[in-house]
C-alpha cells in the first residue's frame, strides 16, 4: 500500500489547476457479509506494520525488559535450581513465559492507545466509516497481535542466543504465532474494555499497571502451577496467560501440555474480549 | 423532507434532514429540538458560539451518537436504522487534527480507501487522485508529522474524499490556521465541490468564511437554530429589523444579535475547549 505509485509527474501535479478526479466521482462498491471483517483486520494490521517500519524505537526499547528477565532472572534461577521445571533448564522453562509476558505488555496498553486515538480524532473518524464496531475492535486486536508477534520474534532470537533449546519446526512455530496473536487479542480487548469503562488515560494507566503484574505472577510464566498456593492456582486457572504459556511451552520445548484446551480457551477469551470491547466502544465515542 | 420537486421530476432528496432532534449529556441538553435541512449540492454553514450544540448535532448526523429513529436522515437513510448506509455517503473531518502522524500522507489516505472497500486494483490510483485534489502529491510519501497545519487539514480532506462521499462534513476545518492556509483549504474544498457536486456541511467560528463560501447558514444557540438563510438574507434581515442606515451589518453582527450576551456561561465544556486549544496549538 505504501509503495503505491505516485502520479506520473509529482513535481508538476500540485501546480496543475484541475487534477484528474475521475475515480473520486463514484463511490467504491461496498463489501458485504463475511468479507468485511478480514478486510478491516487486514487494514488495521497493515497500519501497524507501516508504523513499525517508520519507527522501530518501540521495538528496540521493548526488547530490553525481556532480555533482562532472561539474562538476570533466568540465569540466576537456573543456578539456584529452586523451581521444579520437569528436568529442563530454568532458562528454557522461562523463555516461553517471557514471550507471553512481552506480548501481554504490548497488548495491555492498547486501551491507552485507543483513548489517545479518541482524543486525537482518529477513532472518531474511523467510527464514521462503514466499519462495524466489532470489526474495528477485531482489527485493533489482531494489529496488537502482529506487533506482539514481532516482539515475540525478538525474544525468541534473544533466547536462542542464550542457548535455549527450542524447536525450529515450522508447524510448531506457526502454532506459537497463533497462540501469541490470540493471547494478544484477548489482552488488548481487555484493555480496550477497561478503556470503555474508565474513559481517560490517567485512570487506565493506573489500572493497566495494577492488573499487569497480578496477571503475570498469577500465571505459570515463572513457575509451575503446582507450586502455587491453592488460591493462586484458582487465579491461574482462569488466567488466559497460563493457557498461552502452556501452549508456548508445549510447542517450543515439547513439554507436556494441553494444546486443544489451551487454544480453545485463548480463542474463547479473544471472542469474549472482542464482544465486550465492541459493546463499550460507543461510550468512548461520546 | 423538504426537498423541492418540479412537476414530472422525482422529488430531490435532501442531503440532511433533522426534525425535532434532541440530545442530552446527563443534565445538559446539548441539542434541543433541532429542525434543519441541508439541500443536495449546497455548502451549508452551521454556526454558533461554543456549546451551541453544533458538534453534537454533527455527531448525531454522522451516527457517532445514537439517536431515536426517524429524527435524522442522510439522503433519505435513517441514521438510526441504517447507520452503515449513512456512513457510506459521508466524508468526515473532525475538529481535531486527526491524521495519523506516524504514517505518510499516502498511507493515511490508503487506510481510508481500504476501510471504504476500494478494490486493490484501483486503490493506488484513487489515493493518488485524492492527494492530487488537495495538492499533496509531492508530499505524499513524507510522514504526516512533518506536515504543516494547513497540509494536515488538506490531508484529512483527501482522506474524506477518497471514498467519493456525497456529503462532506467538516467540523471547524480551518481552526488555528493562518489566513493563507485557510484560504488554501477553502480553495481545495470548492474545487472538489465544483468537480464532484458534493454537498458540504461545515461548522466554523469564522464568520467571514461562512459569508464568503456558504450558500446558506444556520445560526445555532442553546441547541436550536435561531436564524437560517443565505448570509445576505440574514444580514439584510438584521438591517431591516434594526432600521438603521448605512452599510449592511456583517454576519458577525448577526451572530452577536442571535447569541446575545451570557456566552461565557455556555462556552462548551472543559474537554471541548481543551480539544479546540490543542488543535489550534498543533496547527500553529
TrEMBL record, chain A:
Question: Transmembrane segments in this chain: where?
Answer: 93-116, 148-168, 174-199, 211-232, 263-282
Q: Name one Pfam family in it.
A: ABC2_membrane
**Annotated membrane topology:** Multi-pass membrane protein
Q: Which UniProt keywords apply?
A: Antibiotic resistance, Cell membrane, Membrane, Transmembrane, Transmembrane helix, Transport
Q: Where in the cell?
A: Cell membrane; Membrane
InterPro entries tied to this protein: ABC2_TM (IPR013525), ABC2_TM_bact-type (IPR047817), ABC_2_transport (IPR000412), Nod_factor_ABC_transporter (IPR051784)
Q: Where is the ABC transmembrane type-2 domain?
A: 57-284
Q: Which family does it belong to?
A: Belongs to the ABC-2 integral membrane protein family.
- What is the protein named? Transport permease protein
Which organism is this protein's natural source? Streptomyces glomeratus
UniProtKB/TrEMBL annotation, chain B:
User: Mind telling me which residue stretches traverse the membrane in this protein?
Assistant: none
Q: Keyword set for this entry?
A: ATP-binding, Nucleotide-binding
Instruction: Tell me where in this chain the ABC transporter domain is found.
Output: 16-247
The protein's matches in SUPFAM superfamilies, at most eight in alphabetical order, are given as: P-loop containing nucleoside triphosphate hydrolases (SSF52540)
InterPro entries attached here?
AAA+_ATPase, ABC_transporter-like_ATP-bd, P-loop_NTPase
Alphabetized GO MF terms: ATP binding
The record, for PANTHER family, names: LINEARMYCIN RESISTANCE ATP-BINDING PROTEIN LNRL
What is the designated name of this protein?
ATP-binding cassette domain-containing protein
- Protein species of origin: Streptomyces glomeratus
Amino acid at each position: 500500500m505504501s509503495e503505491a505509485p505516485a502520479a506520473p509527474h509529482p513535481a508538476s501535479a500540485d501546480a496543475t489547476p484541475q487534477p484528474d478526479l475521475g475515480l473520486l466521482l463514484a463511490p467504491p462498491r461496498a463489501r458485504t457479509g463475511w468479507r468485511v471483517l478480514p478486510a478491516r483486520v487486514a487494514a488495521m494490521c497493515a497500519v501497524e506494520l507501516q508504523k513499525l517500519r517508520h519507527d522501530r524505537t518501540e521495538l528496540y526499547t521493548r526488547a530490553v525488559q525481556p532480555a533482562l528477565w532472561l539474562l538476570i532472572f533466568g540465569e540466576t534461577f537456573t543456578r539456584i535450581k529452586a523451581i521444579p521445571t520437569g528436568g529442563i533448564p530454568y532458562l528454557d522453562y522461562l523463555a516461553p513465559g517471557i514471550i507471553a509476558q512481552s506480548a501481554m505488555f504490548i497488548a495491555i496498553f492498547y486501551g491507552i492507545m485507543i483513548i489517545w486515538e479518541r482524543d486525537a480524532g482518529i477513532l472518531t473518524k474511523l467510527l464514521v466509516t462503514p466499519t462495524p464496531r466489532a470489526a474495528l475492535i477485531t482489527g485493533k486486536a489482531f494489529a496488537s497481535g502482529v506487533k506482539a508477534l514481532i516482539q515475540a520474534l525478538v525474544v525468541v532470537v534473544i533466547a536462542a542466543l542464550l542457548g535455549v533449546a527450542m524447536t525450529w519446526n515450522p508447524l510448531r512455530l506457526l502454532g506459537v504465532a497463533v497462540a501469541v496473536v490470540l493471547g494478544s487479542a484477548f489482552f488488548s480487548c481487555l484493555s480496550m474494555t477497561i478503556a470503555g469503562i474508565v474513559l481517560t488515560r490517567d485512570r487506565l494507566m493506573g489500572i493497566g499497571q495494577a492488573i499487569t503484574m497480578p496477571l503475570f505472577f498469577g500465571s505459570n510464566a515463572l513457575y509451575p502451577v503446582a507450586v502455587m498456593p491453592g488460591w493462586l492456582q484458582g487465579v491461574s486457572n482462569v488466567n488466559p496467560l497460563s493457557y498461552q504459556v502452556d501452549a508456548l511451552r508445549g510447542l517450543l520445548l515439547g513439554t507436556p501440555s494441553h494444546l486443544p484446551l489451551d487454544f480453545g480457551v485463548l480463542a474463547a477469551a479473544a471472542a469474549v474480549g472482542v464482544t465486550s470491547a465492541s459493546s463499550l466502544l460507543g461510550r468512548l465515542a461520546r | 423532507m423538504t426537498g423541492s420537486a418540479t412537476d414530472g421530476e422525482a422529488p430531490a432528496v435532501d442531503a440532511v434532514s433533522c426534525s425535532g432532534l434532541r440530545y442530552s449529556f446527563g443534565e445538559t441538553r446539548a441539542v434541543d429540538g433541532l429542525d434543519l435541512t441541508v439541500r443536495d449540492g449546497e455548502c451549508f454553514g452551521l454556526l454558533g458560539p461554543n456549546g451551541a450544540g453544533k458538534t453534537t448535532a454533527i455527531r448525531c448526523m454522522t451516527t457517532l451518537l445514537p439517536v431515536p429513529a426517524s429524527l435524522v436522515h442522510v439522503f433519505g437513510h435513517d441514521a438510526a436504522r441504517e447507520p452503515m448506509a449513512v456512513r457510506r455517503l459521508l466524508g468526515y473531518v473532525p475538529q481535531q487534527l486527526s491524521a495519523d502522524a506516524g504514517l505518510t500522507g499516502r498511507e493515511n489516505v490508503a487506510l481510508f480507501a481500504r476501510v471504504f472497500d476500494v478494490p486493490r486494483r484501483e486503490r493506488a490510483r484513487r489515493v493518488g487522485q485524492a492527494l492530487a485534489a488537495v495538492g499533496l502529491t509531492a508530499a505524499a510519501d513524507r510522514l504526516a508529522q512533518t506536515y504543516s497545519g494547513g497540509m494536515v487539514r488538506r490531508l484529512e480532506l483527501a482522506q474524506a474524499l477518497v471514498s467519493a462521499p456525497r456529503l462532506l462534513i467538516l467540523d471547524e476545518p480551518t481552526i488555528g490556521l493562518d489566513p493563507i492556509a485557510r484560504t488554501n483549504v477553502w480553495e481545495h474544498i470548492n474545487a472538489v465541490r465544483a468537480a464532484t457536486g458534493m454537498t458540504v456541511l461545515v461548522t466554523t467560528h469564522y464568520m467571514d468564511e461562512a459569508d464568503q463560501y456558504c450558500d446558506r447558514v444556520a445560526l445555532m444557540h442553546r441547541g436550536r437554530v435561531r436564524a437560517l438563510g443565505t448570509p445576505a438574507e440574514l444580514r439584510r434581515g438584521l438591517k431591516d429589523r434594526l432600521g438603521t442606515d448605512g452599510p449592511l451589518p456583517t454576519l458577525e453582527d448577526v451572530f452577536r444579535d442571535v447569541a446575545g450576551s451570557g456566552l461565557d456561561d455556555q462556552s462548551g465544556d472543559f474537554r471541548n475547549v481543551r480539544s479546540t486549544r490543542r488543535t489550534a496549538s498543533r496547527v500553529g
